[in-house]
Amino acid sequence: MAAKTLAVAAEPDLPPRTAAQLLVDLQTARLDGLSGTVVERADLGLPAIPTLTGEQSAELTSLVSGKHTLRVWYSGPDKARVSLLGTQGQSDVIHNGADTWIWSSKDAKAQHFKSDPAKADDKGPAGIPSDLPKSPQEAADLALKAIDPSTQVSTGNSARIAGRNAYELILRPRDTASLVSEIRLAIDAQEKLPLRVQVLAKGQASPAFEVAFTQVSFTRPDDAQFVFNPPAGTKVEEADPAKIEEEHQQKQPDLTKGAEPKTTVVGTGWTSVFVMRSSSPAGADPAEEQKAQDVINQLPVGNGGRTFNSKLFSVLITDDGRVLVGAVTPERLAQVAADPAAQLK
Q1: Which whole-number Å values give the CA distances from 81 to 37, 139, 140, 280, 313, in the listed order?
Q2: CATH architecture of 2-244
């Protein structure tokens, strides 16, 4: 009883707002400046990643598993910085006007990309790791895209996040075949911006994914935060966009001889399933193909093929060479695999 009383007392007393009002708040809020500390936790039920080994990795590609601490700064669309802090170093992505820097303290290496303002479609380097959302704003943007008739929207309890009062908006799939139970968005009562996003899987009490501020300020950061000064001993590489594109193309398989993958999406909303069929491209490395096949052969057999299941998504590799992926149950993937629309012949 005492614990319940404390929990209730911890909830701030805020004027009531409906789910519709909170949606309008999120979609009309304006962000001029921000800095803070973000904690990201991912417990998707994936196999253990060796690079984590109980420590917080400072690699930007490690965000799909474990707990990570990031520092973020934002000062308009032309100035942004994300710093991933690890026990053995840190990695930064700094964007300032036409300049973008990617720096790893562990590798003592930095890459500098220069975009061309004259090209409307030049948004900087395509190789910046994205993985899972690195801020509550990114996660909320993804969640809001899911709102359609297949989504039930409601309000939850008020909360204190990073020392600030927040409303809670809850998104739930109407289709029970979805592995997502609900998405909870904590919205700053004053600034109307997301402070925390949690994704809960069916049957799980704790979030499979969470990204939240532990400290935040909505004051514009000083411009010095977006100036990169390479530490002593850092090897700086000036990235040549033409060379990067050439190397990227060289790594791509030759799809000119009928090997281009066939793809389709079956269903809509939370239970949509991506389906792909592809044959071996010309010039494919047999050794690499065998390695991939060895991994597939280790997956359990079920539902008409090899399966891989996590808390929030399932994968089915059928015996006839198709790959189906969706945030749905393995049984739903098997149903889609039998659907004429998913045959890709």
Answers
A1: 12, 17, 19, 40, 30
A2: Clam (2.50)
Round to whole Å and give the CA distance between 136 and 124.
23
Per CATH, the number for 262-342 is 3.30.310
Q: pLDDT digits over 257-272, tens only?
A: 445 568 999 988 899 9
pLDDT tens for 4-37 read 433 444 688 899 999 999 999 998 898 999 999 9
Question: Which ranges of the chain have pLDDT less than 70?
Answer: 1-10, 46-65, 87, 116-132, 134, 241-261, 278-285, 287-295, 297
Using DSSP's 3-state secondary structure scheme, residue 48 falls into coil
Strand stretches in the chain, DSSP E: 34-42, 66-74, 79-86, 89-96, 99-104, 109-114, 151-155, 159-161, 164-173, 180-188, 194-201, 209-217, 235-238, 262-266, 273-277, 301-302, 305-309, 314-318, 322-326
What is the value of pTM for the model shown? Answer: 0.80
- For the chain, the structural domain boundaries read 2-244, 262-342
| Backbone φ and ψ of 297, nearest 5° | -65, -20
